[in-house]
Each structure stands twice: as structure tokens, then as C-alpha cells.
Description:
The complex is a heterotrimer of chains A (292), B (193) and C (399). Chain A has 292 residues and is α/β, with parallel strands linked by helices. Chain A is globular. Chain A folds into two domains: 2-143, no CATH class; 155-265, no CATH class. Helices cover 31% and strands 11% of the residues of chain A. The longest helix of chain A is centred in the C-terminal third of the chain and has 16 residues, at 250-265. In chain A, strand 1 (19-26) and strand 2 form a beta hairpin. Chain B is of the alpha/beta class and 193 residues long. Chain B has a domain at 29-163: Rossmann fold. Chain B has six helices and five strands; from the N terminus they run E-H-E-H-E-H-E-H-H-H-E. Chain B has helices spanning 38-47, 69-77, 98-116, 133-150, 154-163, 171-176; strands at residues 29-34, 56-61, 82-87, 123-127, 184-186. Chain B has a four-stranded parallel beta sheet with strand order 2-1-3-4, sandwiched between helices. In chain B, helix 1 (38-47) packs across helix 4 (133-150). Chain C is an alpha+beta fold and 399 residues long. Chain C has one domain (30-398). Chain C has twelve helices and twelve strands. Chain C has helices at residues 6-15, 38-50, 139-152, 159-166, 215-223, 235-256, 263-272, 279-282, 291-295, 341-360, 370-374, 381-398; strands spanning 32-37, 56-60, 77-81, 107-116, 119-124, 132-137, 168-173, 199-204, 207-212, 229-230, 302-310, 313-320. In chain C, strand 11 (302-310) and strand 12 form a beta hairpin. Chain C is globular, with a radius of gyration of 23 Å. Chains A and C meet through strand 2, helix 2, helix 5, helix 6 and helix 8 of A and helix 9, strand 11, strand 12 and helix 11 of C. Strand 5 of chain B pairs antiparallel with strand 5 of chain C, so a sheet runs across the interface.
Amino acid sequence: MTELQDTARRLLDEGAVRVVIGWEGGRLGARPAFVTSAADCDRLIFDTRCVHNLATFLNPRRSQVAGLGKAAVVVKGCDAKAVAGLLREAQLERDGVVLIGVRCGGVVGEPSALEPPALTAENVSSRCWGCDVREPGSVDVLVGEARPEPPVTAALDERVAALDALSPAERLAFWTKEFSRCTQCYACRQACPLCFCERCIVEKTEPQWIETSPHPRGNFAWNLTRAQHLAGRCVGCGECERACPVGIPLGLINRKLQQVVYELYGYTVSEDPTVPAPIGAYATDDTQDFIR
Amino acid sequence: MSAVDHPQRSGERAPGDGERASAEFEPRITAFVCNWCTYTGADLAGTSRLHMASNVRIIRLPCTGRIDHVFIVKAFERGADGVIVSGCHPADCHYTAGNYHARRRFGVFRELLSFLGVEPDRLTFSWVSASEGGKWADVVNGTVERVRRLGPFDAYHGLAGAATPADDPFASYETAAAGSDESATKASAGGAS
Amino acid sequence: MSDETIDDRVEGAAEAETIDFANDDDVAAPRRRLLLTHEALAALVAELAAAGTPAVAPAWAGDAGRAAGATAAARETEYRTVSGAAELAFGERLPRLSLKQFFLPPTEVLFSWRRSGGGVELVSAPTTFEDQVVLGARPCDVAALPIVDKVMNWDYADELWNARRAATTIFGLSCGVEDDSCFCSAVFLEPAASRGSDGRLTPVEGGYLVETFTDKGEAFVAGHDALFTELAAGADGAALDAQAEGFRAAARERVAANLQVDHGRLRDWLDHHFDDPFWASLGPRCNGCGVCASVCPTCHCFDIVDEPESVGRGVRRRNWDTCQTCVFTLHASGHNPRQDQNARFRQRVEHKFLIYPLKFGDVLCTGCGRCSRACPTGQDLAEILADIDALAAAGEAAS
């Protein structure tokens, strides 16, 4: 942690950045912090509570963050994949941000604890399973000691498989029930680093493609659309599900589509922004066995 | 009135159904087709007087690459029991690569729809060229039969039932003219209903 | 409402040194005190369900999602109609949404329309509702209702809200304090507050001490007379009283430790520090997601949309909305008076702790703490209020 604080202090002192976006320990747990002075760098922490994907704050439309000046962002490997997504889609210039990577051994699903909890198969975040970026590679500085592997849990894949095993009618009943709680608050969209559109399709009123009313029909259209728009772009950070105030298991849908783009197009989320995302690219010999 | 809407279901049957049993379910199919290939192919099917089911309403777009998944969702919302998406064969796209983009997009979308509980057979994809009138007739007939076996898409249309008040709000209005109900408000500027 | 305009009242109030927060609907002493055993509660819930009028109560959420693998302590609860005692979650985690959804549903039809001949026919949504009882609601959720009643009857009497309110009987449940995020005692309430309730349950040995406050509360008890026992006079009754008061007193002490602020000082600071750099310390962290508004018992903004249902038919609906979204104040011209999250987050705090008090004499917050628990980026309202109060105190000391 001291290495992280020292790095932040140096960057601010040198004037390389005007703000360091990291995590701090609050009264109710870990939360994002925006440190603008070297003296405040002591606030910066990194522990198992640091689940937030700070890449979300790099959305250029967040003028209250952009207005703070050039930023250094502390990123775990999963967060770095989101930054790569933003670079891939021309939302950022690489030299417009400094990336401080942290070596990570996994985080918990919920950041609210006074002390960082030890990780168990029950409390570890679903994003940590199978992580291949415990040392983020695409960063400017890498800090922190190497940490042990996170506890193994394939819970997310198992739950996706369980849904796949149901009949379509059973799945429709499942999702109708889950989406019945949705109030179309769009917290999932706001929490997502890859949902950065200046004008979201749900806000388009001429015509209104997606009904904004939170009835099951409108909720189906909304959740289906967001999932489709994230296909091949979602990094699996789980922030959408964590943000949802009524506990809709959005991670199941996004994980399913990660599996689909892998099976169909051999694509897995990459830290390398030059690897094109699957939707938007194509190959002349793409699978078309579903087309008559 | 949007071309996507289907008229109220009550008592109405698609024209040309005289031979079929009146109780048989006639699926409502919306087809999103590209202008250059499939639309022309469908036209050819018509001018060739090929016999095919009449359950399909065609919406013409410049290219399958233009077809957004929300169109398909909207069609189901507005009463379609099945949807067809059809365009030019790979390498024949009028805009060079539109159908390649569509192929990827719909490769993913059909998996997503299936995961959320829509039977895969309700959504049909095809490449039909301008000269394949016969193929278009086959796609239409095949789709209608597959969707007929699945039945009306009540589960999705029923989501609308959850949205609207259970009772028809205008039922009371029908009797208001007889002077009975108090809850109807008439705001008509023109003639009576 | 009198002839004076809102501006007159706001100006007048701003000049007043203090606002009298004594509530017009402060409840009197309890009319009756009764005992409801756990078994009787189960029977009551079953009786109501069997009669086709199931009670709304805190219940275990039957989620497939986050609850998978969660420990019992982590299991979420929600307010919903219950058909049996096994579903009840009295005194467990605070329900994730407030009671607001039963009076202002997330989506609600205002009227239905259809084309007819050359014109349009309209049918308004019905404004009578089935009677409903709420059992075991948290006082912070119940007290929110009379607070929001004021704006719902300000320049227009909202028939849908009022009719649902009139049709509902509410029995609160004295709260044992959820955690460090609550601060009901800092907003003129307390964990056993009876504001807005027709009756109150307090946990005692063997069940609940039940107190009735209103005609509705009395009527409900009378309708299920066999299940309630009059509190015995003498030592037994006194012992239960003491248990109940002990529970309530411990809760009061616990929540008071979470936050104390001087509202007059707070209001004054908010009124004079619109451009303070303090807001820029809060805005960056905010996602603009509005989860705070969804879970809040007192947030009540809504959006109105027209939706076609079929050819020539449709409805007008109102849907929950939030001032935290970037389009909330977006004008058709493209101008947005609240251009960034600093401004939008400031608005939230000002509306709740300055503007609503000046307009209606009530803080638009019951200290339930949901906003802080639900916020994905860790905004902590109690901490924010304490920080503002500290700034205000420092300002006072300096002057």
C-alpha cells in the first residue's frame, strides 16, 4: 500500500497528473477516492474491499471528473480490461491517462466492511474466477506484492449452465420474474465502464424503441438491449449486478454472452486495445449454420 | 400507424384463409428484409405466382446490416409470433459488408433471445437472393409451419397484460352511452364511436 | 392552500430564525395496548391471506440472483404481500425498497385512450382501491408517508396517492436499529416513531406489544379481536411495558450515536453555499445512477410518458424518475441547468434539507440509510450531513 501511496505522491508532485483516482477507506467500507494533493495520498488503499471498477470514472462525459484534470487511475487487471475497451473504442487517448496497476488476489462482492475480509469461496466476487490478469500488463506503473490466487468458485458458470439446461418456457418464466423487480433506474448502465454513450438508446423518444416504463414488457426490452449492446465488450466486472438495487442477476446474462462470443468467434476480453471487439468486426468465414 | 403493428386479434383472420379450419392458429410473422436481394426475391415469388402462406408482413430495409435487434423485439411486442430476417448471401451485399456485420450481430442475438426464454424457432434467418423466389416461398412456408407448431407467442404478448389494467378500461365506456357508468370521460371532438 | 404564492412562503420562511417542525399529525398517546403472540401473528397473516386481502409485510426475498449462496444474515428482505408466517422477516434486514411502491408504484397508468371516429376517448384510472393493511413496517418508512403527503396535496391533490393512502392501515414495528448508516433520530424521528402509523408493534417476550393510535388502527384490531389480548393490569402488564420500553430506549441510544446535526445551521449553510467547493468533493464519486432515489422512502419524482398499447389504443403512465440522471433537467433547447454531477448531487441534498423544509416544514428524509447502503460508489449521507454541519459550525465560529 505504501508503494501505491508513494507512486501517487510522486505523480502529483511531478505534475504528471492533477488527480489520482483510487480507493479509500470510508466510514462504511472502501469507496472511490479522488486525490488532488500529495498530502492526501495517505488515504489511498488497496485491499480485498476494493471491488469498484474505477475505469467508469474515465467516461469523458463525466465532466465533473474530467474537470479535475489529467488523471492517474488505480486499476486491477479486470479494470484495466475496461480501460482497454475505452481505448479500443476511441473514448480515451492512451497518453491522456496514467494507469497504476495493482497486483491483485481477488476482491469480495461487497465493499462494505470496516476491515478487509479474508477471501472465501462464498464472499469472493464472481468476476475473480479464472482471472488471467492478476498482474495487469498494460499499465504505466505496477505496484503491490504478489498475492495468492483467489478462492476457486465456478458458481457463475454453473448457474449459467443450470439455466441453459431449462426449457425456453422455464427460462422465460425465470427472467420474467427477475425482471419484474426492475424499475429501469439504469444504475446498471451508469455503473458500467463500457456504457458511455452520450445519448443512450433508451432515451431516444422519436421513436421510443425501448419502453421506459418498468413493466415486464419494457423491462425485457431494456435488459435485452443492454446485454446485446455489451456483447463482446463486457469485461465481466460485475458492477452492474452490484449496483442493481433489487438484486437482478445481470451477471448471468453477461457471462452467457461472453461464452457465446468465445464459442462463435474465439474472442475473450483482452487487455490489448488493438485486438478488435467481435461485434463491429467480422470474418468472411464466420459461422452461419443458423442461417437458412 | 407503424407498419409493424398488427391489427387487434379478436375475430380477425388473415385474408386468403378460406380453406383452413377457422379454429387453426394463424401465426403473425414480421419479416425484415434487405431491399436488394430478398425483397426482390420476394417480389419474384409473387410475380411467379408461387403459392405461399400469407401470414407474413414484409418490412423493407436497405440492408440486413441496418437491422437493429430492437426491431425484432418491437415486432414481438406488437403482436408478432415469429420474425424473419433475410438478406443477401455473403459476398453479395450491395454495401459490401453489411450482411457480414448482420451475421455476427444476429449470431449473438439469437443466443441471447434463447437464453432469455424465446424459442429459437420463432426467429428465422436466411440468405435469399434476388433470383431465389422459390427459396423465399420455402422460407415463408417453413417459418409459418414452425411457428404454427409453437403456437401464439402469448408468453411475450402476455407481458403486455401485466402492463395494462386487467379489465378493458373501455368496457365501461361502451355502457356509458347507455348512461350507466361514471368513470368514463369523453374527449372526442368528432363524431360518435 | 392560501392565496400567498410559494415564493411568498419560502421568502417568509427563510427570514424566520427557526422552522417549527412540530408535526400536525403527531400522534396522541396510544388508545389501547394489547399483546399479539407469535402464534397469533401467524394466524392473523393466514386469516388475511385466506380472506383475499393479504397483508403487506417485510418478507424474505426469493431471489435467484444474489441470494444464491448467501448466508441467512445476508439474505435480502422486501415488502410484499405475504400468504403465510414462514415468509415473514420481522426484525431482519431492512427491506431493500421502502413502502413507497405501494402508494406511488414504479409505473402507474393515469388514463387509457383510444381513437374513435375522428376523435379520442379517455378513461381515467380508477381512484378507489381495495383496503390493505401493512404489518411490521419500519418507522422510517411509515413516517415518510405523511411527509410526502404534503407535496402530493400542495398545488394539486393527487387522487391516486391519496386514495391508496386512505385505503391502507399501517402498523409499524419498533426498530432495533439496522446499522451505522441509519440516522432517524437526527431527522426528528426515532426507531420507535409512530408518525404516520395507525398502530405500532414492539417486540416483547412471546410476541409483540401492540398499540393503536387511530380509528383505522382500532378498526383493524376490532376486526381480528380474537387474536389480540388486552394487556393484563398489574405486574405482568407492567413487565411487558418495561420490556418494550427497554427495547425502544436501547434503540434510541444506538441510533443517536450515528449522527447529530443542527438543522437550522445546516439549512443556513445550504442556503448560502450554492457554489461552495464542497460540492466538487462529492460529485466526482457519484455515478448519477439514482439508486439512492429508487430506494428512498421520500423521493417522489416521476416522469410521464404516453405509450401505445395497440393500434389506436394506448395509456399515459407515470414512472419513477430521479434528479440524478443527466437528462432530468435537460431542456428541449439542449441547455441543461444542472450540467454535471456536482450540480445534481448538490440538488439532492438541497432539496431534502433546505427546499422541502422551507416549503413544507419537513425534512425530506427519514434517516433510513438506504441511500448510503445501496450506493455503488459509497456516498455516505450521514457523513455528508456531518461534514456540512461541521463546515457550518466553523463558519459560525469564524464570524
